[in-house]
Specification:
With 279 residues, the protein is of the alpha/beta class. The protein is 39% helix and 25% strand. It has helices at 15-19, 45-54, 66-73, 92-107, 123-137, 142-155, 166-170, 207-221, 238-251, 264-270; strands at residues 3-8, 23-26, 29-32, 35-38, 60-62, 79-84, 112-117, 158-161, 187-194, 197-205, 229-234, 256-261, 275-278. The strands form three sheets. The protein has a six-stranded mixed sheet, with helices on both faces. The protein has a four-stranded parallel sheet with strand order 2-1-6-7, sandwiched between helices. It has a three-stranded antiparallel sheet with strand order 4-3-5, with helices on one face. The relative contact order is 0.16. It holds the Pfam family DegV.
């Protein structure tokens, strides 16, 4: 069966995904003061980071409309899978669900559509998208893919360390996090997305020590690494991402390791220098 995989623009794509017609990406809108930026292939990360640094207001995002998703669902593919950032962090998932309902009201059930709430963001969505493509290329049935990708999503771990938590704090994304953020002492938090919600796992002074702690947590808490793909999103810090990859792959063997550059939404919330890890 033919297929299409639709991610919102928090799905940080690999270069191969950008060129593959099976993948489509629905943009969120990035807002800095009075400036609105569409998070699509025209996104300029360096210019955006400069805009954020010069603005007295923190950046925000606006989720796609159902109509944007609907346009991507109206295609020739027999199966469509949409992968959205965590429903606990954005309205993107709900927009995709509404778009599915709109499609079925107009066209009936002439194609199979499944919406995946990634319960993650950035490379977590990338990881799910890549696994979806593998299952589609293996010729699995729609029902098998839905069951397998749901199990894959539920077993995936998301860890991250950020240089700055300002964007997350200003946008209310840290409501469940204890207020132990001490920027004056250069304290960096090691955090995880658990069930789509941000939790603190630890803290260290300085980014390098925090990254080492994150790696230690990943190695101690992870299982069956040889069956999993390691995906890392970096925000303007490729060398840092490579260092984290090397620290992890020195200790455990993954089936694959992928580093992706943050698109716009990940750049907003992970901020300059941020690292997200999923497996």
């Amino acid at each position: 069966m033919s297929y299409r995989i639709v991610g919102d623009s928090c799905s940080d794509p690999t270069e191969a995904m950008k060129q593959d017609p099976h993948f489509r990406f629905v943009p969120l809108t990035l807002i800095v003061g009075d400036t609105h930026v569409t998070d699509d292939e025209t996104f300029d990360q360096k210019a955006f980071l400069k805009l954020v640094a010069e603005s007295p207001e923190g950046p925000k995002t606006a989720c796609p409309s159902p109509e944007q998703y609907l346009r991507e669902f109206e295609c020739d593919a027999d199966m469509v899978f949409a992968v959205t950032l965590s429903s606990k962090l954005s309205g993107s998932y709900q927009s995709a669900v509404i778009a599915k309902q709109m499609y079925e009201e107009h066209h009936g059930e002439d194609k199979k559509i499944f919406i995946v709430d990634a319960l993650s963001a950035g490379c977590g969505q990338t990881n799910i998208c890549l696994r979806l493509q593998e299952l589609c290329e293996e010729g699995k049935s729609f029902e098998e893919i839905v069951e397998t990708i749901t199990e894959y999503r539920d077993g995936m771990k998301t860890l991250f360390v950020l240089e700055s938590l300002d964007a997350l704090k200003k946008n209310g994304r840290l409501t469940g996090l204890a207020s132990v953020i001490v920027t004056v002492l250069n304290i960096k938090l090691v955090m995880a997305g658990i069930g789509g919600v941000i939790h603190k796992l630890g803290q260290e002074r300085g980014i390098d020590r925090a990254l080492k702690k994150m790696v230690s947590i990943a190695v101690n808490e992870g299982t069956d690494f040889e069956k999993k793909r390691l995906c890392i999103t970096n925000v303007n810090c490729r060398e840092r991402a490579e260092k984290v990859r090397d620290m992890l792959t020195f200790q455990v063997k993954f089936r694959d390791a992928v580093i992706v550059d943050a698109a716009g939404v990940s750049t907003v919330y992970a901020s300059d220098g941020g690292i997200i890890v999923t497996f």
